[in-house]
Design brief:
The structure is a single chain. The chain is an all-alpha fold. The chain has 2 domains: about 80 residues, no CATH class; about 55 residues, lambda repressor-like DNA-binding domains (434 Repressor (Amino-terminal Domain), Orthogonal Bundle), CATH 1.10.260.40. The protein is about 70% helix and about 0% strand. The protein contains 8 helices and no strands. Helix 3 packs across helix 4 and helix 6 packs across helix 8.
Length: about 150
């Protein structure tokens, strides 16, 4: 992606965030749920493909149907159970970790990170739930809200 396209993408995302999400607790909640679902789906897909499993193979491994695996890998799916996620993690040789964070810090931190990235001139399109959920960029998130 060229720098000009990245800048346009960032500007559009920033505009949408500023006009539709920032300062609106209901929209922040909806966005957070969408990010959570997207992160779970993306992580399951990544783990499965890294292991070299098809959806059918993973389904057989955990005793379910391929359509269930497809649903788990769908970012719009919100019905994940801990039991199913544990079975997936076990089958893919991972450990399921659930973390709780104070909501006020999460929301304040997410907006602060967004604003910091925008003001620093960063045009990265990687701002997503990894920060808000404390994923791979957890240390960056924690340093900004500390």
């Amino acid at each position: 992606m060229t720098e000009a396209i990245r800048k346009k993408h960032w500007d559009a995302v920033q505009y949408l965030h500023d006009h539709y999400v920032k300062g609106d607790p209901e929209m922040q909640d909806l966005l957070e749920k969408a990010r959570e679902a997207g992160n779970v789906a993306r992580k399951i897909f990544q783990m499965r493909t890294q292991k070299g499993y098809s959806q059918e193979q993973l389904a057989e491994e955990i005793g379910t149907s391929p359509s269930t695996i497809s649903r788990l890998e769908n970012a719009d799916y919100l019905g994940h159970s801990l039991q199913t996620l544990r079975r997936v993690a076990d089958a893919l040789e991972h450990v399921l970790v659930v973390e709780f964070s104070p909501l006020r810090l999460l929301l304040a931190g997410a907006d602060g990170i967004w604003e910091q990235k925008a003001s620093s001139g960063s045009r990265s399109n990687t701002w997503d739930a990894e920060i808000a959920l404390g994923g791979e960029r957890k240390e960056e998130y924690e340093s900004l809200v500390a």
